[in-house]
Design a protein that fits this description.
4-stranded mixed β-sheet, about 30% strand, about 100 residues, 2 helices, Enolase-like, domain 1, alpha+beta
Length: about 100
């Protein structure tokens, strides 16, 4: 079937007050998420967009002394393969689960 592909662009910047290390520069990047293109998937896409606008989608983590943007607590699918264990499909419960989290 057809698919929705969400693209999140996170700019590199300096962390703001409230982050674990305020004023620390961090590295942004491009992040992709995949959803089925059906009514359920479109509804989920709208919710994910709202969460992104509210700053809930990503978090900043330290890797080897470098601050990087990574996915936060909301699960996103990044592959059509590998199943739940690898952030992929098939995962029959995913849309229900992500809507519950949102």
């Amino acid at each position: 079937g057809s698919a929705l592909r969400l693209l999140f662009k996170v700019l590199s910047s300096c962390s703001k007050v409230g982050h674990p290390r305020p004023g620390q520069p961090y590295k942004g990047g491009y992040f992709f998420a995949l959803l089925p293109d059906n009514r359920e998937g479109q509804k989920t896409a709208m919710l994910l967009k709202k969460a992104f606008e509210q700053g809930l989608t990503f978090q900043i983590k330290s890797y080897n002394g470098e601050e990087r943007v990574t996915w936060g607590l909301i699960p996103h699918k990044t592959s059509w393969h590998g199943g739940k264990a690898r952030n992929g499909y098939p995962d029959a419960q995913y849309l229900r689960e992500v809507c519950t989290v949102l």
